[in-house]
Amino acid sequence: MGSLFSRQPAPLLGIDISSSSAKLVELGRDKAGAWVLERCVIEPLEPGWISDGNIEKFDEVAEAVKRLVKKSGSRTRNVAMALPSSAVISKRITLPADLSDQEMEVQVESEANQYIPFSLDEVSLDFCVVGPSKNSPGDVDVLIAASRREKVQDREGLAEAAGLKPLVIDVESHAARLAASRLVEAMPNQGVDAVVALFEVGSMTTSMQVMRNEEVLYERDQGFGGAQLTQHIVRQYGFSLEEAEAKKRNDDLPEDYRSAVLQPFVEGMAQEIGRALQFFFTSTPYNRVDRILIAGGSAALHGLTDAVTAGTGFAASIVNPFEGMEIGSAVRVKKMAREAPGYLTACGLAMRRFLP
């Protein structure tokens, strides 16, 4: 298995596969060390090909990934992919700092047995040292990640079927946080001590992570997303599902669409985000956030950030993971700007190329 946390300096594609599309990002750095967006492309997937993170139509998805890579024009074949958080058990533990690598592996396996509800023979297990423990001087915090082996093999097989070499299998939420961390650092005081709520609005599910100083305070998935907007369009205008999705993507809808369909949907989505924040406040000592970041394919819906700011009382902004990057000549700038919020996880995967 490509390690869940391995860090590869080789050229690397980040490919994120969601229920509605496959997205590819390739990053470089210039001589001064600044980020360069070399490529970003998206390939739609048919409903039902991916369900709850599981690949239901393997051959069809593999062909879509092949088309994605061909469309990108990249010659790179090394790839980082990710599993949904629901397929991975993550646990932070504390271990003595003076353990050798071999001793740490033994300790991790022993600890993992307590948290993983199936045999270690059936899982892909990895760990990384996060850093010195704040609560236990002389010890280190270690992050364990484990997934059923067949889930990892599905992603590896998909890459190989598309002619790619899987070097890294990550976790979607980790990759999204990595990409978002650049944006947090651009906040006042470099985002130190800021409580940031990151919402990724997908097709079927919206995932929420609340972070402070690179620590995850709270995570939650909610069953609402952009696919519900498509269904509202179908009901309002009598289009087929395929027609509605195409017209939504191309902004080719009747004149009353914004007032009759989009505005009520956006207000409902803002209410769901507000409700998710209330769950966070009632489950933790926190009662406010400093910034709400909204990513995902539906993040750029007209009026969404205004509705969220008005409904929650906290500043909301759309995530552009490529903000501040140089843009390579292979990138279609207008298309990228429109689709940027959907590339957050793929961008985080591509960033793995440059981690120390």
Automatic annotation (TrEMBL):
From what superkingdom does this record's organism come? Answer: Bacteria
Q: Which Pfam families match?
A: PilM_2 (PF11104)
Could you tell me which Gene3D superfamilies the record lists for this protein? 3.30.1490.300, 3.30.420.40
InterPro entries, sorted: ATPase_NBD, FtsA/MreB, PilM
User: Which NCBIfam families does its entry note?
Assistant: pilM
Q: What is this protein called?
A: Pilus assembly protein PilM
State the organism named in the record: Comamonas flocculans
